[in-house]
Write a structure and sequence with these properties.
heterodimer; A: about 220 residues; alpha+beta; 5-stranded mixed β-sheet; 10 strands; B: about 850 residues; Four Helix Bundle (Hemerythrin (Met), subunit A); two-stranded antiparallel sheet; 8 strands; globular; respiratory chain (chain A); transmembrane (chain A); membrane (chain A)
Chain lengths: ~220, ~850
């Protein structure tokens, strides 16, 4: 039988261009840490409940000594309270740290989705526009303003950060940051019709100092290595 | 009762020898009255045992269809860049897999279980509205067939089972695919809603006498809470479907952001249904587990009261956490934190149940048998699904995992695993009741292990591939990624699981033929469904027990023969009536003699007319839709016209020295409570509509509209006043009838008032600004006014029915239920109508306030 401990083993070393467990930015990094903590906790709880089930079935004499009220109070009330309270506090703090930093006034990039392609615009970069490729400066927080021209899509670069939906009529802001220069992959994560599967985009992260020039070159149509 | 060990007392002390003959004679008389005829007469069946089995078998057929569709997706995804299916086909297949599993398998299956089992466990002979059960079944069958045929025709829904708009709008899905979903699913949902009302009324007032609510077996509590959740959860989806269909068919822009609608409104309405739906499906399964586990452990359930509190808490909580399906739509983080906390807290009532079951097993001597194997399968999958559920309730993690295969894995653990394992365990457990045979376990054990191993192999690996970034609903993927081997193993697991399910079904069918014959109660259970000969006779109990303790501690061995001898209530026949008892809602004191309708083809004809209305709507033949809707309504009026009796009976003896009024003369017959709970559902729909208007006002783009609403104030106020007057007329009519005076004049005046209201509403709708097709403001105003028209129209039908029944002698001063119902309906219409019209009048002020919108 497969179980949660097995998962930990299998995940070690599991990488890939879209892996949330190979983070390349602070947001994806803190969510990955959150995941590993939750995995450990969940594994322990799963083992506990299934262990109790096994004890009840195999060692009924032991199990019968615990009073019914104690089973329900300890397992149904105390256990969830102990597990959930710190988890919820930790998650709230993590989530707050991931929000767009309005006060810091970071660079803004507009990502517009339509069936079935992405267009990126750079109001801070002279109004440059790069279809299908998102250019980012490394080590710099960027607010991506995500909109849609038709149906609902979702903007997601798994190795950099969580996702946000592109909802027609609304503008959503996602804060992302890449640690290092390199090429990453992004995709549409909300089912949007026939071309949903192919609605991907590349993310090219440039050294921060070279970013303006690289963006200008890309917008002018020259392919960036 | 004097003797304390006498769990379920029955009166009389007839000598055994004489009574054996009496029992057989009683059996013959009751069977003659309650039986469903052979051949074509089967289509006229209204009996709960017959219909319950039909529901379950039909649901299993749809489970097989949905399963095949699931396997098709696994074939397509087994290898990268597969060309097995085109993306268009794949979209139809996964949409229909989800839609069938949820709407045509899970919910009808729980309804079938409720219909078949609940009356037996509660010690009564049938449900409250047998013809409505039959109508619900036919609607389900026809609606499900429409959806399935659309798949064969290649025009099946293809926008995903949650049908997010604008993708499902007529701009981006111009064919009839989305209409099939909206109409087919709404058809099935309305049948589910009628059944939910019936389940509530039946549980509340049709139990064995003496069975107060706190003596009700835990299964009754689970079904009661489930059905209450259904009447609160389905109306938002039904409303959403009506609004989306009217956007598609008539251009009313409720969800179109370019005309003041908002696609997020659909998501709110959908998940207001969708999240409670998870618990609606899970709770009956938990009810089966709570019933089976004590028997399999040879003990009684531990923590009965804690479980009742837990499931009520779960029901409340489940309505407050729908937003956790929408963590990525751009809602402020602190609001998300609220819903996140709520979602995590759901773990508490769930854990209470898990540990109550563990404690029950611990207190008894659990036996390993096939149902227990499935209990084990349930524990492992449900705990796993619960833990990943808590993970997904954590907002930052959900931002990564949302809409990936991690979520697919999670909900298959909590929905597929937590339904399939208890369900198959329950099928093995109750098989002797259904067939009169106990299972011989040859194939059963290997079938279980194939399901268990296959299930975990398929879905466990999906967690992993999801974390590696694989999104849901893609029809293929490139080879370069680390997803390939995980997908292949998932697909292999899927086939193992499918073989397991196929074997289990073959095994169950074989048991019907080859199982060992058994007379009654093979599990030494202590609930009333076993206190009858098995398989059950159409009337269930030859006489109805009087319950003295909690009804999961019945001494079945003593009670069953006494009941068969007719020593309980109603151990005789009278006028060829199908008789059962109605009790006080909480105390369980007997209050009325309920006489149920015999077999009839009327439900079939009514459902066929309804199906014709749906099909003509699909074909866009709206005149035919109107005609068929009129036929459906006429058949309902006809059914109501023939209900009950055309004379008074006074109090009639029911045995054990008790006499009760017939339900037609009782203060609150089942129909009264049915209307009360129908109005609860209707009020939920109305509230959802008001919520929709306010939501658009607060959040939708392209507000305010160009035109400012300018409603005819005098006409609107006059309509409100006339609505109130119509309610007064309805009361006067009731007062007249009960006071033995002629009510007809008052009824005619009430009808005239309602007609005037309808006329005023039509004028108001025609003069709406902005035009309903131009802006969502006009569309929602039109929807509110149409709500009034529909309710006033139904009020007219109530008056029409009452008039017909007065003329035919079915209504009398003592049988005044028709006018009671009419009074209640028109009161409700007046209140909601005043609110609706008032809201429309307030629209200009709302628009002016938009300057304050953030």
């Amino acid at each position: 039988m497969l179980s949660l401990p097995a998962m930990a083993g299998m995940l070690a070393g599991c990488t890939g261009p879209l892996s949330t467990l190979a983070p390349a930015g602070p947001a994806a990094g803190s969510i990955a840490s959150l995941w590993w903590v939750m995995l450990a906790g969940a594994t322990a709880l799963f083992a506990l409940v299934m262990g109790l089930f096994a004890l009840v079935m195999l060692r009924p004499d032991w199990a019968r000594r615990i009073s019914p009220a104690r089973w329900i109070v300890l397992g149904g009330l105390v256990l969830p309270a102990i597990v959930l309270t710190p988890l919820l506090v930790f998650a709230l703090l993590t989530g707050e740290r991931l929000l767009p930093r309005l006060a810091a006034d970071p660079m803004r990039i507009e990502a517009e989705a339509r069936q079935w392609e992405w267009t990126f615009r750079y109001p801070d970069g002279g109004g440059a526009e790069t279809p299908g490729v998102l250019h980012l400066p490394a080590g710099t927080p960027v607010d991506v303003v995500v909109t849609s021209a038709d149906v609902i899509h979702a903007f997601w670069i798994p190795r950099l950060a969580g996702k946000i939906d592109a909802v027609p009529g609304h503008a959503n802001v996602l804060s992302i940051e890449a640690d290092r220069p390199g090429t990453y992959q992004g995709l549409c994560n909300e089912f949007c019709g026939l071309g949903h599967t192919g609605m991907r985009f590349d993310v090219i992260v440039h050294p921060a100092a070279e970013f303006p020039a690289a963006l200008a070159a890309a917008a002018a149509g020259k392919v960036q290595p | 009762m004097s003797s304390s060990q006498d769990d379920t007392a029955t009166s009389g002390a007839s000598p055994p020898a004489a009574s054996a003959g009496a029992a057989l004679s009683l059996h013959r008389q009751l069977t003659e009255i309650w039986k469903t005829g052979p051949g074509w007469q089967r289509l006229a069946a209204v009996n709960h045992s017959v219909l319950g089995i039909r529901f379950m078998v039909t649901a299993l057929v749809f489970f097989a269809i949905g399963g095949v569709l699931g396997m098709l997706t696994r074939v397509q995804l087994a290898t990268p860049m597969a060309t097995f299916m085109e993306p268009g086909t794949y979209n139809q297949v996964f949409t229909m897999h989800g839609s069938i599993m949820l709407f045509l398998f899970a919910i009808p299956m729980l309804e079938g279980i409720a219909v078949y089992l609940t009356p037996k466990i509660l010690g009564t002979r049938d449900f409250a509205f047998p013809r409505l059960t039959a109508y619900g079944y036919w609607c389900y069958l026809f609606g499900g067939t429409i959806l399935t045929v659309s798949l064969l025709a290649g025009v099946a829904p293809d926008s995903g089972w949650f049908m997010y708009t604008p993708l499902s709008s007529n701009v981006y899905t111009p064919g009839i695919n989305a209409d099939v979903w909206l109409l087919g699913v709404t058809f099935v949902e309305i049948s589910a809603l009628t059944l939910a009302v019936e389940i509530i009324v039946s549980i509340l007032i049709m139990r064995a006498p003496g069975m107060s609510l706190d003596r009700m077996p835990i299964f009754g509590w689970y079904m009661l809470v489930t059905a209450l959740m259904m009447i609160l959860a389905f109306p938002p989806l039904i409303l959403g479907s009506i609004l989306l269909e009217s956007e598609r068919a008539f251009g009313l822009p409720f969800f179109d952001p370019t005309r003041g609608g908002d696609p997020l409104l659909w998501q709110h309405l959908f998940w207001l249904f969708g999240h409670p739906d998870v618990y609606i499906i899970f709770l009956p399964m938990a009810g089966l587990l709570s019933t089976m586990i004590p028997v399999l452990a040879g003990t009684v359930l531990v923590g009965y009261r804690a479980i009742v509190v837990a499931i009520i808490g779960l029901a409340f909580a489940s309505f407050g956490i729908w937003v956790h399906h929408m963590f990525t739509v751009g809602i402020p983080h602190l609001a998300l934190a609220f819903f996140s906390t709520g979602s995590a807290i759901v773990a508490v009532p769930t854990a209470v149940q898990i540990f109550a079951w563990l404690a029950t097993l611990a207190q008894g001597k659990p036996r390993w048998n096939v149902p227990m194997l499935y209990v084990f399968g349930f524990f492992s999958t449900f705990v796993m699904g619960g833990l990943t559920g808590v993970m997904l309730a954590i907002v930052p993690f959900d931002w990564q995992a949302h809409d990936t295969y991690f979520v697919v894995a999670h909900f298959h653990y909590v929905m597929a695993g937590s339904i399939a394992f208890p369900l198959f365990g329950a099928l093995y457990y109750w098989l002797p009741l259904l067939t009169g045979r106990v299972a011989v376990y040859r194939l059963s054990v290997p079938a279980f292990w194939l399901i268990f191993v296959g299930f975990n192999m398929t879905f466990f690996l999906m967690h992993l591939v999801g974390l590696l970034g694989m999104p849901r609903r893609i029809y293929t993927y490139p080879d370069v990624e680390s997803w390939t081997w995980l997908n292949l193993l998932s697909s292999v697991g899927g086939f193992i699981m499918t073989i397991g399910f196929a074997l289990a079904v073959i095994d169950l069918l074989a048991q019907i033929r080859f199982g060992r014959r058994v007379r009654r109660d093979p599990w030494k259970a202590a609930t009333l469904e076993w206190a009858m000969p098995i398989p059950p006779a159409p009337y269930g109990f030859a006489s109805i027990p009087h319950v003295e303790t909690r009804a999961d501690r019945v001494a079945v061995g003593e009670v069953a023969p006494a009941l068969a001898r007719g020593e309980g209530y109603l151990g005789f026949t009278r006028h060829g009536w199908q008789e059962t008892l109605g009790v006080h809602m909480t105390t369980g004191e007997p209050e009325q003699l309920i006489v149920l309708p015999r077999t009839t083809y009327l439900p079939l004809w009514t459902a066929l007319a309804t199906a014709a209305a749906v099909l003509s709507m699909l074909a866009k033949l709206y005149w035919l839709t109107a005609l068929m809707a009129a036929v459906t309504i006429a058949l309902f009026v006809l059914a109501a016209r023939m209900a009950g009796f055309d004379r008074d009976y006074g109090r009639l003896p029911i045995g054990r020295g008790v006499s009760l009024p017939v339900h037609t003369e009782a203060a609150h017959p089942p129909a009264w409570w049915a209307l009360v709970f129908t109005l609860v559902a209707d009020a939920t729909l109305f509230t959802s509509l008001v919520f929709g208007l306010l939501f658009l006002w607060i959040s939708a783009p392209n507000w305010p509209p160009d035109a400012v609403p300018d409603t005819d104030l005098a006409l609107a106020l006059a309509a409100m006043a006339v609505l109130g007057i119509s309610a007064l007329f309805a009361r006067a009519a009731l007062h007249a009838l009960v006071g033995r005076r002629a009510p007809r004049l008052w009824m005619a005046l009430a009808a005239l008032a309602l007609l005037a209201v309808i006329g005023a509403m039509v004028v108001l709708i025609a003069g709406l600004a902005p035009h309903p097709t131009a802006h969502a403001l006009g569309a929602t105003a039109a929807a509110l006014l149409t709500f009034v028209v529909v309710h006033a129209g139904i009020g007219l039908l109530f008056l029409l029915t009452a008039t017909l029944r007065l003329a035919s002698g079915h209504a009398s001063p003592r049988r005044a239920i028709d006018l009671h119902l009419t009074r209640l309906w028109i009161d409700y219409t007046a209140i909601t109508g005043a609110l609706a019209i008032g809201l429309v009048l307030a629209l200009p002020a709302l628009v002016t306030m938009l300057g304050m919108r953030p």
